Amino acid sequence: MKKLNEDWVVVILGFLVIILAIIGIQSPVPSYSWSNSSELVSKVFTPGNISNILLQFVFVLVVALLGALLTGRPLKHFIYVFPVVYIISIAAMILAGNKGVKELNLEAVIFSLSLGLLIGNIFKLPKWFREALSTELYVKIGLVILGTTVIFSDVLKAGSFGLLQALVVVLSVWYFAYWICRKLNIDKEMTMMVSSAVSICGVSAAIATAGAI
């Protein structure tokens, strides 16, 4: 199969997921909320919820496989690495689902990053393991899907003034953050990443920008 540009793959897969959702084919949403050990067992580790987690795994795996095929990435290592990363993601979601953790406003991305750093520094991961997945691809697909949550009626309510205001805020914050970073002699790549993160949508924008760079 001819290798496609990653940005085109993002568009194709993002809209594929959106179309599937419109026609009623959606990934189940597991529950990760719990406040104590008994609720962890009775709400998260129930057969029904575990079944939803596995079904979600299959759904995401199919999308990821298509992404690997379209971008020309080897599938041999991908098949081994993807389940491991998915399990780490589930662990992060469970940790973030705790009531006390939610009250501290700690999100799953913090635990994902922490677990990744912990594993990466304790174990010597082979190069093929690190290169098997294109995390930027999945973040970009997520951004496309995230865009569908912006209801068109809300855009109409904001009107031209609201859209203009949003544009001015994003641009002014981006350029101000860029100026501050350059004044602090931060390298250009980090500057672009920080500017995009603080002006647009945080972690997702930072990762997408880093991937584009």
Short description:
The protein has 213 residues and is an all-alpha fold. It has helices at residues 6-22, 37-44, 47-71, 75-96, 99-103, 108-122, 127-131, 135-147, 152-183, 188-201, 203-212.
Domains, number: 2
Low-confidence stretches: none
Mean of residue pLDDT values: 82
Radius of gyration: 19 Å
Elements, N to C (H/E): HHHHHHHHHHH
Helix fraction by DSSP (H/I, runs of at least 4): over 70%
Assign the structural class, choosing from mainly alpha, mainly beta, alpha/beta, alpha+beta, or little secondary structure. Answer: mainly alpha
Main beta-sheet strand count, sense and barrel state: none
**What is the oligomeric state here?**
single chain
Q: What is the terminal separation in angstroms?
A: 26 Å
Shape descriptor reads: globular
The total count of helices amounts to: 11
Number of strands: 0
Strand content is under 5%
